[in-house]
Amino acid sequence: MHRSLHLTGLIWLVALLLSACASSLATPIDRKTPLANLPITATPAEETPAPPAAVLAAQTSLANMLSLPDTQTIVLLSLQPVNWSDTCLETSPQSGACDPANIPGYRVLLTVNGQLYEMHTNSEGSLVLPTNTSPTAIISLIAEQRLAEALNRPLSDLRLISIAPVLWSNTCLGMPETGNNCSVQTTPGYRVLIEIDNLRYELHTNSDGSQVSAAAPQPGIGLPQLSWQGGAPCQTLEMSVLGLSLGDCDGVLMTYSFPTPDLPAQLFEWITAYGPFIAQTPAGSVQLLGNGQQAASPSQQRAVAEWAAWVAHNAPGQGDPTFGLAFEWRRSGGIGGVCETLQVMRSGLMTGSTCDGKIIGQALLSDEELTQLYAWLDELTAFEQTTSDPATADGFEQHLSFWGNGTQASDAATQTALLEFCARQFDQLRSSSQ
After folding, report:
1. Smallest Cα–Cα separation from 405: which of 376, 377, 383?
2. CB within 8 A of 83, min separation 6: which ones?
3. First to last CA, the chain
């Protein structure tokens, strides 16, 4: 049995959330130009207003640790004043291993030969300790500090939303309108999303953080609850119940408002139904930060990815109306001259209606039904079929349009099974609506 969609209450709930943010999400902003008056670039070591002793001590310590002959190849990326809370300068992963203290010092971020390092020092540089900080954490710190400096705001005002590795298609880190000469060259780096004052800032970096660029701010959508990547060309989608961000995988994301309240309502249903998961599916990679009790099966994970792909295709407002359709079924005739249709999306969402547009009901396929749906889609080629009952004058005619992406032609038995599947789903929708 399929699961009926209880969207009315969800739409009402999400509408309240959207109304609070309508002004900030109403109009997408062109983000393809650098942020005006926001010079987010790497700061050369000689221009950094930092105590030379702390910088030199950190560079010397790293050179000794790496057995380098000198510090000439070690580049300072960032220097941040910090009050360390223990005698280990907060470098020990074991709680209680160090004595509590209040030690003024610095967080020094360095790069050498493309590798990133974080060093903690006291204010004089007489104590330098390395950390085991991950490269993504170091890149995040660099991006946050650059943005805080550009906006003249404390780091505590910034909220890191996400950081993800990206292969930029040019040396301008996916921002060709920066006014620089950009070479077409695959450049490894990161996309860092930071929010402040309900605005989202997108920063692009290279792999070691020595190059940082920022795009114009967009309305914030908070922490993404659904992230998806896929399609050709590759697209990146991030969604929360407040809005969505979409763009090329190696470009800048743009924030969009939801064209209809049923989209955040459906997202809300995914979030409350399933627990968190990350999956690679035929419809792309997907991550859901769900809080439900149910572990999503592979078919259900694919359903979420298929839905995200459909949202990404339609968010700009000019999508192909048949995109995401698995099949469309129509039944007409009978004594009363009925005409009924059923649309089944690749996400498993179904809509039954009359031919004049009256909605009969909506539902989501069960896990078992999704598994059968994807077996058909992956195995069978696309086809159209019309059948009728010639034995009686008041018989029914059925028409089926099927958008499979497989290589196998459907036989008569499979086509009959598909027709029976559609008729059964429609009859269940009609029964549930009465």
Report:
1. 377
2. 102, 103, 104, 105
3. 17
Cβ neighbours of 336 (radius 10 Å): 7
Contact 226, 301 (CB under 8 A): no
- Residues 408 and 282: their CA atoms lie apart, in Å, by 18
Which among 128, 105, 113 has a CA at the least distance from the CA of 59?
Answer: 128
Mean pLDDT over the full length of the chain:
85
Q: Tell me the three state secondary structure of residue 140.
A: helix
Q: What is the pLDDT of residue 95?
A: 59
Q: Please provide the DSSP assignment of 20-61 as one string.
A: HTHHHHSS----SSBPTT----PPPGGGS---HHHHHHHHHH
* Close Cβ partners of 391 (under 8 Å, ≥ 6 residues apart): none
Q: Give the closest residue to 143 by CA, choosing from 215, 89, 88.
A: 215
Token output for 45: 């070591």
**Is residue 125 left, alpha or beta, with left meaning phi > 0 and alpha meaning psi from -120 to 50?**
left
Residue 100 neighbours by CB under 8 Å, 6+ apart: 85, 86, 87
Strand partners, 107: 80, 120
> Do residues 236 and 253 make contact, with C-beta atoms less than 8 angstroms apart?
yes
CA distances, 84 to each of 80, 81, 134, 247 (Å): 12, 9, 19, 40
Tell me how far apart the alpha carbons of residues 155 and 145 are, in angstroms, rounded to a whole number.
7
DSSP tag of 408: B
Decide: 352 and 361 in contact? Cβ < 8 Å: yes
Domains of the chain: 1-31+220-321 (no CATH), 45-138 (3.10.450), 325-433 (no CATH)
Reduce the DSSP state of residue 221 to 3 states and report it: coil
Stated pTM of the model? 0.78
78 and 106 Cβ atoms separated by less than 8 Å: no
Q: For residue 233, is the peptide bond before it cis, meaning its omega torsion is within 30 degrees of 0?
A: yes
Task: Give yes or no for residue 16 having a pLDDT over 50.
Answer: no
- Share of residues in the chain with pLDDT > 70 (%): 85
Residues forming beta bridges with residue 230, ordered by sequence position: 235
